[in-house]
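To: structure desk
From: M.T.
Subject: fold request, one chain
Message: Could you run this one when you get a chance? Sequence is below, nothing fancy, just the single chain.
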Amino acid sequence: MTKQDLQECYKRIQPFIHHTPTLTSGLINKLVGAELYFKCENFQRAGAYKIRGATNAIMQLSKLQQQHGVVTHSSGNFAQALSLAARNLNIKAYIVMPSNSPSVKKNAVLEYGGEIIECESTIQARQAAADLIVANTGATFIHPSNHPDVITGQGTAGLELLQEHSDLDYIICPVGGGGLIAGTALAATYFSENCQVIGGEPIEADDAYRSLISGKIETNITANTIADGLRTQLGSHNFPIIKEHVNQIIRVSELEIIEAMQLIWERMKIIIEPSSAVAFAAILKNKTTFKTKKVGIIISGGNVDVANLPF
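Reply: Done. Structure tokens follow.
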């Protein structure tokens, strides 16, 4: 994926996405001792950055492929994103969702016109259900994070952030399947002087942290984290990018995630989901690393069940 690929992708998807705002908080800057710039993808269409990659992936399909529709598996945000992107482009979307996905995300998929097929909440069950749909319908499978066109699309959030703040020292984003951090790392490589990309990851689902150490893709035996969007693992397309361009991954506890989430709700008056809070939690945990630095934070989404908050 080249610099030109990222630029062309951004031009391609612009009619279908929001250019989301970047917010700051004087109080939070003082608390952390750094200048923080929150890229608010919680204000994105479908409530998360994933509409970027979903739209790009669909637009890159042939007319024949588009006629047969698309299928993915997702706990929620990519499910919503692919459903909306498909509706925008008049294409059928089949969405495999774990049965324990938040109801707010299931309802949104239905509202966007996606057809939900439920499965057990394991990666194996997700993939098996998606493979069956491909066999039965001829739909094209689009992975939520391990797909070149998806990774490129997700990188446009970092591109926008760097267009506004070209002098960032760091960009921090949450790590789940690896699409966002891989795309962000490419954007930082192509469009900044020396901006380092760091990931935030729950201790309860720290496969990316262990993968960087071992040099190969590790798995999670369990993923008992409140950050439901991060219960997935890295893939063959995004891991090489992460290995080359991501500086480190900071792990945070469940309590640290909840405290970071609550602080943003209270001080910035914006709704973010637990997965988004992981990146901010990583900064709060490592204030000395970021002291006096300019730090971009990608708030990945705001699709949270407000009837079931952790605080």
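Reply (cont.): Residues 202 and 252 are 5 Å apart (CA to CA). Let me know if you need anything else for the meeting.
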